[in-house]
Design brief:
This protein is of the alpha+beta class. The protein has a four-stranded antiparallel beta sheet, covered by helices on one side. A hairpin with a 4-residue loop joins strand 1 and strand 2. Helix 4 crosses helix 5. The longest helix has 21 residues. The radius of gyration is 25 Å and the shape is elongated. The termini are far apart. Pfam families: DUF3576. Keywords: Signal. InterPro entries: DUF3576 (IPR021959).
Length: about 170
Amino acid sequence: MTLQNALKAALVLSLCLGVAACGSRRGGIRIADAAPADDSYISNNRESAPTNYDKSSIWDVFGPSKAEQTVQVNRYLWAASLDVLSFLPVQSVDPFTGIIVTGYGTPPGGGRSYRATVHIKDPALEARSLKVSLQTSGGGAVSASTARAVEDAILSRARQLRIADNKL
């Protein structure tokens, strides 16, 4: 094979790959396309996680990523966490990642100071979506039963808020 034929073959191969990369998407409807425009989808317990399946060409894969893709949190768990831990001063909140960090505070009727970090990992109203970490003012971690009791209180309050919202 001559050099000229090798160059022609390389050119044809690169053109074929370029055309294949610009192909159209597969048909069908995605879950994200079927979601209503208002917040009523939140009460359905699940929203699909963002995926990269909507890339339409090879150039989209190597292009800049979408910074708007964030983790969605359950609004009832978010409000219940702030409500149950209202005796603690809030240091920082990030609704895009689902993290609430509080300072030290004493619960009503209690003698010890606690601080909490709440992580809401999923838009579902389930126990696996919620992680609470507690520390005492002495720097030690609290017992697992105490952290579980706080998680249960947050989950119960979130369910109450959902029922009161009449979106079952």
